[in-house]
Fold each of these.
Amino acid sequence: MEWRISPFPIGYENALALMEERSMAIAAGTAPELVWLLEHPPLYTSGASAKADGLIDPRFPVFATRRGGQFTYHGPGQRVVYLMLDLKRRQPDVRAYVASLEELIIRTLAAFNVRGERREDRVGVWVARPDKGEGYEDKIAAIGVRLKRWVSMHGIAINVEPELSHFSGIVPCGIEDPRYGVTSLVDLGHLATMEDVDIALRQAFEISFGLTTTLVETVG
């Protein structure tokens, strides 16, 4: 299984093309599974259940995708992790896979003493914000997946130090309740670098999914 880190921002269309190509090769048995860590330039993506009114201010390019979910933001300071895993030989269960991604995020955040939590009625990983008021919570990581021939595509996005105001151009994941916002590790007071997060991610990933045997660093 390859573990790949791209040190420079990757355009969304280029990333999507690579995911499509690689997932087909994995399904055909001609390429190993891939976990790809990257950042995108500022952009919005809409998932399969996105509604038109979820896009408030299209200040950045907008890309329609076939992943699950609604609108989300990607940009610098956010660790995007695209997972191309063969679930047919692992566990062909979508719910179990999403739960394993939630656990991956929760374990990663725990390395920074951040308590991430699941919510039955909301996708992603959340942190309680009693400093904002009773019942307030912020999303720190998003999840959106697509399966093609039981090979996963897309994945997770953890907010390390993105510009949080950029989320105001959309209704993130369709959640309009003012008690539920967006946060990041740095916003919570944890001065973590992207490299710190990558180390914690790999450790958490190998607990849940198995060892990564190859480290490939690309130049973009």
Amino acid sequence: MSKTRQHNVYAAQWSADGDAMGSIDLSAPGGTEFGENVFSVGVQRARLPKHTFKALEAALAEGHALDATLADTVAQAMREWAMEKGATHYTHWFQPLTNLTAEKHDGFFEPVGDGTAIADFSGKELIQGEPDASSFPSGGLRATFEARGYTAWDPSSPAFIMNNPNGALLCIPTAFVSWTGEALDHKIPLLRSMDALSTAAVKALRLLGDDSVQRIFTTIGPEQEYFLIDEQYYFERPDLYTTGRTLFGAKPPKGQELDEHYFGSIPERVLAYMMEVENELTKLGIPIKTRHNEVAPAQYELAPVFENSNISSDHQQLTMQVLQSVARKYGLVCLLHEKPFQALNGSGKHNN
């Protein structure tokens, strides 16, 4: 059935009825929620034995492997922390060659002989997982019938909790590798390039007489542009809900240079959405700093403070996930495609 102008006007209406986050007194002790769902260095320092924490810090700083005893201690502390946050399951969270994240959930509870169950999480389970790799793209590295894939814990990117209305999940950032060592994800090439750049930079510093530097770290801060469209408009467009971008349509009567929209006053509905997104990102320890209207109609942007390249890349995936999931609570759909609308400004990323 064709939609009338009255339908479209009704779809665009919004009121702030129902639940709201409310205002938080950020000046009060404990008022800030930054990183509350992250197994951060501060949490590790408080929960791990002193010698274990120092050994973990040294391994991360110098790039050494972790021994089994250390991994077991970290795993137990991580499980206890996660269960206090309401988590019943954990997942090795990785980034296969699909441009999406992937996860397989496993429970902490295991049955014992007397008909009950006990919560446990070993260092072996923390360090390595074995999701089936046969259905992931691999660039032709191996045949499907002999595909094996392994997730390997990345201790340089902290574990975090993802909340759900019915519980919580412990997410452990991992790399994804084949049996023979080929990278099956986007994280391994990034880690390898960071390591190669560090090695080359340290050599250059040695030639310049600096013998104290042991490792060089790179940083990025990807700003995220995105479009928000009302759900009703979205579902009237088969091209949008199928591909996330415009496949048909006419050019707008005016170009994209809308001076009144760029850095303009943020609409109430969009600002409410932005605030909830920022609240969720804050809990995940993502340092969001900036929000504003972008140049195209219904286009907006958020920007984080730059941080370690590996952590920032993981945070970028989480940012896009939160942007899309929170939008539906406001009757909106968040489009992240680079060019979602014909003849309009693209929704891209700028690395700081």
Amino acid sequence: MDKLLALVRREYVARVRSKWFIWTTLLAPVLLIGAMALPVILATQQAERALRVSVVDESGRILPELLETDAFSGGRFRFIPAPKSGTDPREELRRRVIDGLLDGYVYLPADVLGSGGAEYWTREGISPAEGLSGAITAAVQRVRASSLGLDPGAAQELTRQTRLRTYRVTAEGKARDQGQTVVAAHILGLIIYTVVLLYGSMMLRAAVAEKATKTVEIILSSVRPWQLMLGKTLGVGAVGLTQIGIWLMLVAVFLVYAGAAQAFADIEAMRDLPIGLDTLILFLGLFVTGYFVFGGMYASAGAIASSEQEASQLQIPVTIIAIIPILLIILVLDAPSSTLAIVLSWIPFFTPVLFLARYILGAVRGWEIPVVFALQLFTIVIVAWVGGRIYRLGLLMTGKRPTLPELIRWVRHG
């Protein structure tokens, strides 16, 4: 036990004291917070800037009503008259858009009141089109109402859309949901995926480095191979938990600040975040079990490889397995209670990402948690048993990379 603890302490202290650990610990939350804050700041600045828009109204009836809509009267769009000429002004407007004199122009065909549709031409993406679409729809409805002899205001009131608000059902009552659950599931799932891959590949590189420097022969003279593998796994895992703990504290400080900052105060999505103490405990549990599963697989790949180049090739299958749940998470988010989502989240290699997503969405039944962790622990035992046998022989093997039949023999007779 003393030798095992010495290995764990060696792996932990060596990595925590490194400049790499300090820089990644500090930079990762800064980049994450920047990625969260930058879109909000840019969206706020974009919303404050009025977009310059011209309108070509071939019907001759929509433009006056369009300029009365909130989109134009409220300052979101600034109307720039189209050039007056006997020819089609759209070519001149296209040149103005290209030259940056206009942000875009709207084309309303003569039959827009019938079956025709409107067009918006721009160089800056399609995001403003949503606001224009609502304004054009309101203007067309008012003109149609006037044509039918109806009061335009009453017609607009009849056709006013009803906003659907979504709430999560929780044990404490209800909570407003504006997509926070999906965003939280994505972010926490990506954190688990990133950290597990980061520290799993660290296990791989450590095994390759020790084989290359021959230090493993000295270490194995005093400890058993399984102790070396377990010591490395626990030491590197403790580094991961330390880094995640620091990240969570920094993110928590940011969320407290964001809740009080004016730029974020008006964003309802910042309220009622579906992340409580139970979610964080489950998150840590899934990270630890997921790390042990993939850490053992990466360690085995590192024991087989004789060089960094071979290691980069051998880690590809393990990395692909880790990527699969990120690709499948959309299926779980769309229907977290479906049979497919349940089965996928129970597969031990996918559990850390997909089961957490189902839990955040409130689709996990209480009895599933111990069952899933039992499956995770069973998988850890299998991976450790197989990986330990490969690790035992692979660390001392150099030269030709073993074939698949040779690996099977290692596992059977290791």
